[in-house]
Amino acid sequence: MNSAKSVLVTGGAGYIGSHACVELLQAGYRVVVVDNLENSKFEALKRVQEITDKPLTFYQVDIRDHASLADVFAKEAITSVMHFAGLKAVGESCELPLKYYHNNVYGTIVLLQVMAEANVKQLVFSSSATVYGTNPQVQYTEDLPIGAVNPYGRTKAMIEDMLRDLSAADAIKPSQSPWKIALLRYFNPIGAHESGRIGEDPNGIPNNLMPYVTQVAIGKLAQLSVFGDDYPTPDGTGVRDYIHVVDLVKGHIKAIQALQTEKFAAGGCKAYNLGAGKGCSVLEIIGTFEKITGRKVNYSFAPRRAGDLPEYYANPALALQELGWQVEKTLEDMVADTWLWQVNNPQGYN
Ligand code: NAD
Ligand code: UD1
Predict the structure, then answer these.
(1) Every domain of the chain and the residues it spans
(2) For a FRET experiment, which of 118, 173, 248, 298 has its CA 20 to 30 Å from that of 329?
(3) What atom of ligand 2 comes closest to residue 231's alpha carbon?
């Protein structure tokens, strides 16, 4: 056992966390997963172990349960944490804001308390481009002001603030082991592992574009509503920066490695955009999907969805410069891998 490389993955059974587990195991890390399985299934972790032919350790624990989480830290020689656990449905967060603040913000507070008690102070946090809120510029750089526009987004912004405060406190009262934190702001993660064994398994009718398109193509849903055809974008539909989930989790490995370099020797908390750096419209997604799969995607135009921005995408230059990371996969790869996952697992993990 190489205890110098043991990573705790909170939310490791989820969509992004399970892909991170594969990448970590393949990179030689020991992986300990904590997940309450609220939005995931253990089957994902079984498949992670099949793909990699390596074991991981799993605890069905809620990160808000201080005693159980502390127990995990006491048993396992954790050296750093990738923190994916959280709730992520924007619409639900507007209906049930306290559920989101309690799970995401309070859950992170408990995690940080337990980490501090165990003197484990290296953290990679799943943030989101949603923290940029509304901005006049469409290509986001990390120095833009934060201003989320819904409760989900505000939980991410609050956690970011909290992590910056934690790191700033080290400067006031210098610590032998300062906090080393990477805030990774994801753009739009889609795709699945190339094996087709793990992927996104949304509950009920999906809210996000890619799972919806996939379920229309396979005949589970009748028709896609394209929200808005009159945006000031080249074809009138919304533009986003889609990123392959495997590229995304590779960014996490780069970040965890960077936390151990000279750059973070004195500690620090730094945000990085993880995106491809280019925008893609809803119609481009549909067109690529039809080309790659040979399936027709039935769609019709519908009014704009409340809260949607016309267009935004990442400036990923900082991640390249400081983490040595950039995307490698194309939109075609994202569609092909999503489709393989969907065809092989029409009922998800069920
Ligand atoms: P997901 O729902 O598939 O995974 C989250 C996992 O966390 C699930 O397995 C869930 O059971 C677990 N979990 C939730 N609350 C928990 C708690 N209190 N204790 C223990 N486990 C808990 O979501 P995902 O798409 O994999 O997202 C992972 C992270 O990335 C989330 O924090 C999300 O907000 C963030 N993020 C996701 C996207 C995206 O588009 N998927 C974009 C930006 C940021
Ligand atoms: C959504 C979340 C955002 C989160 C991100 C993660 C909302 C309002 N925002 O962003 O907080 O960080 O996911 O990936 O939920 N679209 C359609 N028809 C559909 C679904 C989507 O036309 O049925 C369009 C949307 O209008 C948008 C694009 O497709 O232009 C992408 O939508 P989606 O996948 O939901 O992601 P975001 O809205 O960018």
Answers:
(1) 3-193+241-277
(2) 298
(3) 30
Give the span between the Cα atoms of 41 and 203, in whole angstroms.
11
Of 158, 15, 165, 162, nearest to 85 (Cα)? 15
Q: How far is the CA of 147 from the centre of ligand 2 (A)?
A: 18
Tokens of 64: 């808000």
36-45 residue pLDDT tens: 999 999 999 9
Ligand nearest to the CA of 200: 1
Statement: residue 2 has pLDDT above 80: no
Model confidence at 136, pLDDT cuts 50, 70, 90, reads confident
- Check pLDDT > 50 for residue 3: no
Token readout for 38 is 């609220």
pTM, entire model: 0.97
Instruction: Say which ligand is closest to the CA of 211.
Output: 2
Residues serving a catalytic function are 152
What topology does CATH give the domain 3-193+241-277? Rossmann fold (3.40.50)
Amino acid identity for residue 326 in this structure: Q
Burial class (CB in 10 A: 0-12, 13-18, 19+), 256: buried
224 lines ligand 2 (CB under 6 A): yes
Residue 158 tokens read as: 């609050």
